[in-house]
Amino acid sequence: MTSFEFRREFFADERQGQLNEIGKPTIRQDILGHVTGRSPYYDDHLFDGLLHMRCVRSPHHHARIVSVDFSEAARMEGVRRVVGPDDVPKNLNTLLSLIGFGKEDEPLLTPSKVAYRGEPILAIVAESERQARAAVQAVRVEWEELPHVLDVEEALKPNAPVVNATYPGNTFEYYDKYDHQKLRFGDVEQGFAKADQIVEGSYRMSPIEQAPMETCGAIAVPETNDRIACYTSTQALFFSLATTAKLLDMSSARLHFVGGTVGGGFGGKVDSIVEPMSVLGALLTGAPVKFMWDREEEMQVGAPRGAELWKIKDGIDSRGRIVARSFTGYFDSGAYTRLSSYAVVKATGHLPGPYSIPNVASNVFCVFTNRTPATAMRGFGITGVDFAIECQMDRGARATNMNPIDFRILNAYRDGDMKAHRRLAKNTALIECCQVVADKARWIIGSQSRTQSSLRGGGGEKAHVPATVIDEEGRIGDRRRSDVPTAPHSAGGRKRRLPEGSLRGEDVVAAPPQNPDMLGDAPASDPAASPENGRTLARPRFGPPAEVQVDRPRPRRPQARERPAIPAAPARPSTRRPLRRRTSVSRHVSGFRRR
Amino acid sequence: MAKTPIAFSLNGMERSMFVDPGQNLLDALRRGVGDLSPKYGCAQGTCGTCSVLVDGKLQLACITLAEAVAGSSVTTTAGLADGSELHPLQRSFMDNFAAQCGYCTPGMLMAAKALLDRNPSPQRQDVVEAISGNLCRCTGYEPIIDAILKAAAFMRTRGRP
Amino acid sequence: MIKVDTYRAVAEAEASMDGQSRYMGGGTLVMRDLNYGSYGFERLVRCTDPRLNSVRRDRGRIVIGAGLTMAECAENRDLAFLAAPAMGVGGPAVRNMATVGGNLFAPPPFGDFATAMLALDARVRTAGGEELGIEALLASRRTFRRIVTEIEFLPPPRGGFRFRKVSRVKPKGVSVLSICALLPQSGGRIRGARIAFNGMGATPLRATGSEAALEGRPLDRNGIAPALDAALQGLSPADDELATSWYRRTVAPVYLRRMLLERSHAY
Prior knowledge:
The complex is a heterotrimer. Chain A is 20% helix and 18% strand.
């Protein structure tokens, strides 16, 4: 076992008694199945007469489909059905439409123009996998290659090829207004002007394939009562179920999803492609159909963690305090949105990292390129920017001739500090982590750093939202007309100054529930009538976990224009120290499931 | 399509079946016989999750021609336990947290068995080499190595249960 | 679709080969092509002749059967100098299957064992009794229709044979490139070196520039310097998923230097 230890001396007053589970070995409940080879992964269900589905895929990064001739394939031995774009009842979807975020932008089977290598345009269902493969090879497709763009900065140029017709500016659109996600806190330009020195860095992360041992796949089987059972490798059973119901325009009551035993996922099994494909195959053939990616497909078309590019500019004063920090971030979403729009929001909520910086600005772009669509992977939206921030911290330490751990402790946030997304920091522990890490690494830190605590020195002046400069640069479509600077500190145009203490510039609210039946226990007739126990009604949330619930106005019917607000519900800035009366085992209860 | 009849022993039981030309052993075991313990991971011999023993030697079922095992003795993870008594390797994998998602586990167990059958007293480096053809993506290699070493130690002192 | 024919006698198997046939040794390459449906053949030919796994000596030369597996090769005491390239192939399961003969036909990133055969200046014999040099075989291997039954070579002088596989994954990963060198010495000077690279072209290739530059030179830092400068002559590695051409060209002389200067080696 990996060794770990508890440092019970920290925050001892926040825990009651002993921990019951943490730190004690617990045998996994599914381990017996694992060691006997009996754990039921989706492919461990046998069906007589199982058919196999495989896709015809684009060999090009970007191309128009001129013609498709599958006449020979359709006549081949064992071929039961050729499935085309017209067979998909609602052949345009975006994953987060289930929570009302983003526009439909991705077909299940692409009818006219492919935007990444490996994009599926047709599927063959045959009696054996080999027959399906042979038939796929026999499909004749005439392609007209189009110019492609594989780099996020290139994709933002006025003359860049349009990757995704839904988003002609090659970016996801935030709040129907901007081609990027903005964060403004204080006045970075003034901060830079006051700084003793400026430190700039640029950080790039490659895409990372989750590469689960079990490739993505699903088997759909016609059941009695007009239902289809779907055995799937999904990490998100109900998400996949709802996506399938939506794409195939069928009641979710007709779908019976069986899953939960997943051969590794790491975020790569949430995109819900194999499920609608196999269910569609079963609907069209009336037989059990398996749609399974082989290893090559898993690597080529399986959505990875996307590439990221972060440019960070810091202003640092003579004492080593970071007084202003500006971010320009680019998430390479690949050809379609999938979950990258959300990664951007998540990343923005994370800025400027665990540091108290009085002036922060960021522009983060979700950029479409002709690469494999990106999706979730282990802390996506956070891990990449943390890498960039911590590299930048080392760079800042070098620039100021400081010990990198002292530099971090000096700038670390403390309980009660106002974060850039207008939340009070609480349960912070960076200082203590730094102290322990320094000990473990036998790294000598200053006596000042040694005596610091996350519980002291926060709040007060630092609990306030500073006067904040806001701008309106980067409106949707602007970048098509001319080069617009991407960095927030280069923003031109009209600016306004919000007075100190203002929570935010404009009022945007979280998306209301799509359907009345998503409103929990509230009466369907009037969902807003009786919020129970003073709690607000259950509503889909998006973004950093709301530590503070705020009473909301009466939920309205969903309106297309509404998008979730990030930063989420603001807390009124408070100079009062946050209560530390948590009795749970973890100081970092996020209430949010990490993929 | 002309099928080929083959007979072989699987986990000590005689089996006979028809295989398709070019069919791999993994598919024959899973779909033909119903032994689902070897898993599909890559179908190109690079991940090891379909590892089985053929006449005592570790092989990858996905790149073994099914008809080539005619007359051979095949062992899979499904045949590792002695009745309801788990093999010490299985017990050790359980006790030492050597599985997370469990998908690589059957292959790891077979690779470990192949090692211990030949070398009851492996050094850590021997274990690393023995499982070097088996990928684990939950990155649990350390507990797996520990589990194999502990199983070996157990088997040296007590033999098979 | 596909047809499989199994023969007892290798001569019969060879006689049956035609343009639509592919011979299967250990199956590690052929089966993956079959599994992925990308095969340009309709007929698979196998042979169960146990003599294909033999190892013998013939007038000072070593003769190994093409069906010898990498595991058998690695365990054979007479072939101790080949243990490193044999162990460099795959994991234990692949080594129980992959054969010496099959490796001669394995495209990069596979085929590191063939690199050793090239460094040893091996000759191959086919079922029909034809004999040809390793370089001629490698050059024609894409369209080669005969069945290799034996490979023979002179054992290298003690201490005069080195192999190095370059991989980015530890302890074991796919080969970015490999280097094998036969380094006969006389009076502390290299005489008749053969250096072979895999991964630096479509087949294992000799670094003839380095070989010539080593002639008559000692294996020390100064002695090998011209050989390092000449290492890339005639080699043009490709960009692929594992590494760029630039990367391979950059690291190949570095690994060559380390290999030539290494003090202890298994053999």
